[in-house]
Amino acid sequence: MGLCFSQESQSPTIDFDRDIRPILSDYCFKCHGPDDKQLQAGLRLDLQSSIFSPSESGSTAVVPGNPQQSELLRRITSKDSHERMPPTEEGKVLSAAQIRALTKWIEQGADWDNHWAFERIVQPPVPVRNLANGKVHNAIDAFVLQKLESVGLSQAPPESRARLLRRVSLDLTGLPPSIEDVDNFLNDNSPEAYERVVDRLLASQHFGERLAVPWLDLARYGDTSGYHNDSLRDMWLWRNWLISAFNRTCRLMHSPESNSPEI
């Protein structure tokens, strides 16, 4: 679990969907989840109506704001191997950080969120302060910088233009820039210099080749069956179609005449 407890004072709020649901899913749902055949004590920790209500034993798994009365915490911290959860035979042991997360969640009122896939998409407010002071220039970086600052980190210094060009070229085409490309970029002092580089790379035939590589690997692409005495297989037709599809879609996405590209 990647929790926010290494610096609790800076990020003390527990998020149920991020910090708590994965713990319950990994350690508890086998016996207290949606599988009726495995269900123990009639307790389902995947349902809000069950986790906050008395179980068959009369105890309540989670009492919001009251860790001492929460049976879940008593069980996961019990010294008695017959009571402690998860059961010893499962071979799963909660870490100290996970127990702290569950405790803090209950202390903070045990807020419950539905699975993110069933929540309405909400546009988060952009941290405009970082945009206003010129530290970043787009909304995504504003969110990244806000997170960095919340854990006491700062931005890395700007990269050199030559190395920046090399990185974006390798990322978009899988190929390093030519000497001519480097010279042109270094000599272009306009504010749109980088955007022009990106547009050029996206328009390159090599862009589609770069994006096609993972697809080809997953499909175990090969022009033969892999033996020295194989006859050829005309798989290159699909490879070329795939590369062309990526490049054609990219061109359509950047075309002002089309807002809904189709292949």
Number of helices: 12
**N-to-C SSE series?**
HHHHHHHHHHHH
What spatial form do the alpha-carbon principal axes imply? extended
What percent of the residues sit in helical stretches (DSSP H or I)? 40-55%
Radius of gyration: 27 Å
What is the structural class? mainly alpha
Q: In angstroms, what separates the terminal alpha carbons?
A: 40 Å
Number of E-type strands: 0
Mean pLDDT: 86
Helix-strand blueprint:
Blueprint (H helix, E strand, L loop, with lengths): L15 H12 L1 H4 L15 H4 L19 H6 L19 H12 L20 H5 L6 H12 L10 H13 L5 H8 L6 H10 L2 H14 L17 H18 L10
Question: Gist?
Answer:
This protein is 45% helix and 0% strand.
Describe this protein with a few key phrases.
mainly alpha, disordered N terminus, 12 helices, disordered C terminus
